[in-house]
Amino acid sequence: MADCGGRDRPASEVIMTTHIDRAALRRQIFFWLLAFAVVVAFLMVFRSILLPFIAGMALAYFLDPVADWFERRGFSRLMATFAILIAFIALFAIALIVLIPILVTQAADLGGKIPGYITQLQSLLTSETTLLPGWISSQLDQIKDSFAALLKEGAGLVGTIFQQIWNSGMALLDIAALFVVTPVVAFYLLLDWDNMVEKVDGWIPRDHVDTVRELAKQVDATIAGFVRGQGSVCIILGLIYAVGLSLVGLNFGLLIGLFAGLISFIPYVGSMVGLVLAVVVAIVQFWPDFIMIGAVIAVFALGQFFEGNILQPRLVGKSVGLHPVWLMFALFAFGALFGFVGMLIAVPAAASVGVLVRFAISRYLDSDLYHGTRRPAPLTAGTADDTTGD
User: How far apart are CA 299 and CA 306, in angstroms?
Assistant: First the structure.
């Protein structure tokens, strides 16, 4: 007689159940592969017009916790959304009017002075050979040529990146559409964000709702940790570097500082790139005043202290679940496939893939494929009772 757990079911019933499970699994795999292909095709076809919509969605996601905070204090969702976007647009407009012209001017000026900086650095290397070790002095000509080539290639790479961004959807008309459409999209998405999340939750197959919710929670935590946490760190670091370098009197200090802060989402690399660029400009500008050159280095040391001891622990936490190498690969891959829009969706895509891969690995480590014949036998009710009785 079969027990209550149904362990003595007929073999035909077991075979039929297994066949149904495998058929359902194949249908699910086909469905998700088809959905993935549709999303990729959609991005490829409409990538030239997606920028303001993706930017609006990112803005709504970024500001949703602020709207929730206002709601908990008695504001309606409509009033909270309206107030937040008005404040954000006002701050953005001020930055656009005050900062953008300065940054554009400094960027153009820096690009024009790069050849002169290369010449001055070569002259400094030639005139200060007595300060260098002998083995460096003997290779000085090769070092100068390599350094000049490196600077020229770096300048060309920066120009190529900006040209690619321009060609991939940042023409003048697209910029105007970005400023007009993005706030409208962000307003409606932020207003209905919680309702949309609840609606999507209702579409999840009931058999897998708990698993999907847990995966979505992990993806949200990863994206929030990076976009809201690391994004805030980048902005604050950019302000620290920009203000500090400007107070020191470094040429292009505002541009270099903001650039170093915005790329600091790559651990160590972002700050090192900014530091090297700032020190090169400082050497050309202040040499032989080592105090001023040291002051430039001190600005970056101060920024690193704040990042490691205050900003990262408070705003990001121990980990956002995105490895820097995986993030850089995602940025380059999605940027190459979908242009500037791809760079915007790279972070959520990388977070989603990372969570799914970790989930698949955990399932694999708990499967017969991994354990084989060595899987430990589960405790039965009788065994558990005997153990408790002992």
Answer: 11
